[in-house]
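The freezer alarm interrupted the setup, so I double-checked each line after restarting. Inputs confirmed:
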Amino acid sequence: MVWKKRLPKLLAFGIVMLLMLQLVTFLLVKNDTATECHVRGFYREPDNTLDVAVIGCSEMYADYSPPLAYKYCGFTSYNLCTSGMPPCFYKSALKEFCKTQDPQVVVFEVNGFFYNEEFGLTEVNRRNWLDNIHLSKDWFDDVLDTAEPDELLDYLLPINKYHDNWQRPYGQYKRLKSISKLYTENGVSLMKSFGTRTTNNSRIHTTKKRALRLTDFGRENLLDLMDYCKEQGMENVLFIRSPHRQKLASATSAELEKVISEAGYTFIDCDKISKDIGIDDAADYYNEDHMNVFGNEKFTKYLGEYIVENYDLKTDHDEETKKLWKECEDYTVDAFKVLKERTLTNEDLPYYETTDLGEETHEQLLKAEANARKKLAERQKQNGKAAPKAPDGGKPAK
Amino acid sequence: MTYTSLNYLLFVAACLLVYGICPKKFRWGVLLCASLGFYAIVCLKYISFILLTGFTTYGGGIWLGRYITKSDAYVKSQKGKWSKEEKSAYKDKATRNKKLIVAAILLLNFGILAFLKYYNFFADSLNVILKHFGGTLPKLGLFLPLGISFYTFQSMGYIIDIYRKKVTPEKNPLKLLLFVSFFPQIVQGPIAFYNDLSGQLYEGKDPTFENFKQGILLITWGFFKKLIIADRLVAAVNIVAPDYQKYSGTLILMTALIYALQLYADFSGGIDISRGVAQLFGINMAENFKRPYFSRDISEYWHRWHITLGAWLREYLFYPIAMSKLFQNFSKKLKKRFGMKAAKVVPVSIASLITFLVVGVWHGANWKYVAFGFWNGGIIMISTLLADNFKSWKAKLHIKDTNKGFILFQMIRTFFIVLVGYYFDIANDFTSAMKMMWRSVTDVKISEFLSAATYKMLTVSKREFLLVALAGIALFVVSVLQERSKFTLRERICKKGYIVECLVFMVLFWSVVVFGVYGPGTSPADFYYMQF
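Predicted 3D structure, all chains:
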């Protein structure tokens, strides 16, 4: 009898404790805000609205812009990528993509296959992915496969690792502000997964001293990935090496071509054809590995056209989806204009859609964002939904 | 597996589950398995030491108990047959034999402790003399098994209690081993008397919801003190004291002040965890701290700080010394020459000094700890000797003991006396302690207390200091509330009902989760008293 009385109270207590755990974890867990926004942004996409999946490392959010691809070629896509994605997570990313979407074409950027275990499986690289994807059996398998035994607890209870972030309140505030834009204001990510630096010669270098060759670790995972694609009946799979200032050695390129073509898939080494694409090595990169907005625009156009020409894409979407993507396109076009101007000044600041870094001083960008929001609000009003709030009461921040 | 690790909490939860499921009469067995299991996990290499103490204490207790029974029975059987002298002679002989048995057991167990703890110290000290004669004692790579001081004191208390006929010897060796090794207290106490603890251990009480709630609250409060206050300050203490020459007097003084808070939070936090875990099993362990920094004199401080060690030393060291024939004769002589007051005060003062010297030496094998004992014992001795003078001074100055200002003055004065003792604790050696004290008096600049550079040197960020300050305020408020009530704060909270209980628990729990020092990149700081 006593326990019958206590049970509801204990249950209520348990539920509150779980909710508190969720809240505290959400408030404190943080590795890299941009990556977090890129991955969270993917989950905001309405189900079965993406035509193309783009998977890879940081190159794919610097070099490729889904809204621009939509503008040029009419297909929808999302670049589900994290910086330094280890090769063993390519399959995980594809699985994650296919849980809510049914992509007709899958594009893999091959940089991750050059990582050996030591470089690829650093804690940062692993956490960029594992901390941000949804919990599932796949997530658990990935954790078991890649985490050290003494790290397991940190994955199962991330607060164990991240609780000390209370000491960085400003960083956490910026992160929450960025994420809240995805959830409360934009609804979806307007630029999808996108990140750049406004320069053509950044002081931030990302290339570590490592040989760009297909490592044993990379090869094993590449073969496994291709086997998985075949098992899933995926025919439209494209492997690319996006243009880099640091070109791929021809032997490596040939080896990749051989391995991939043996599995029946296509590989394009864009390093070889970067000039044909129109990439200017001096002006279109922000560092050795990543293109700036100028390079991004050119490469996106190239890749988009390649996909449309080589695969039989069906891009029929409902009106809602089309409108949403039009908003994204408009916003991105406006943002690119501003980012190009900023890149020409060589200010070398990071930017991603929900960034809070220095944006207060960039009224132009805010105006562009306000404009996009206005259109979005109008559309939602037409659909009978409440209009989203503009930041700072709709006035550009100073 | 430290007391603050998740593994330990899971271990406790598993033990509690098995304990709850098990029939009452086997529950002590569950506790024994848990205790030996815990010891094996933490310190398997040295488990033989605790087993040795457990079994020698058991054997010694049985031997002593049998001798007492036999001699008492023999005395009874000779009733009316013996003359007074014959009876007295037999009793003297029996007492001598009992003392020999007790001495043998004490010598063996304290001998192990003393050898492991003090051999190198004595070897170093003796070598200063021996090297003039061309010989030296070798230094040995000795270690201290986990909790050796605590379980040795506890076991030897049991033997002395048998000798004093306060306790009947335990017939089951495994039950006695449980008393010696009970896992929540093995690391740093509290040291229990056999009569207080054994019954609770062997009874197999049902775990109750009330005990569970109060136990969990106490454990969480212990975590709060240990992980938020103590472990966040431990780096600050460790940075200045070993290299005090590099730092100003202000920083040295700040270090001593920080140490006062850190040590209290560490030790009392650990004891709260121990007592809380015991309470989950329905076992009430003795309190070890009663707001020591509210003490009005040093004697009161030692009745509030590490209470169980104080009680042990009073029971088994101070009283035997003060009541010994030697001291009684000394007292008589003093009475003849200097009067009644001297006869009362002087032997007690000397017994106090000896007791505190033992406390000092117990802390470690170093002259600085001898000085620590002298300092505390000396102050108590002087206070006892001058007690009447203080009374008359107070009367002349019209100071009442109930005056709040005077009480505050006494508390602050006592705190600073305690603080001087802490210098011996944190310094590398006696000379360093004296130099640190000197610098703390002669090289203090108030402005440095507020300077950001000072905090930077202590390697604790401003935010961490702010956090510790807030936690310190919470600790102070809780202490004041506890001081004002005869009930524990937990009892009062649990009486307020479900919502208040949950709220208090959640605030404590989530404070620990968010602000505690734990997780990867941090190495859990050992409990300070674990080393003793």
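Quick read of the result. Residues 270 and 276 of chain A are 9 Å apart (CA to CA).
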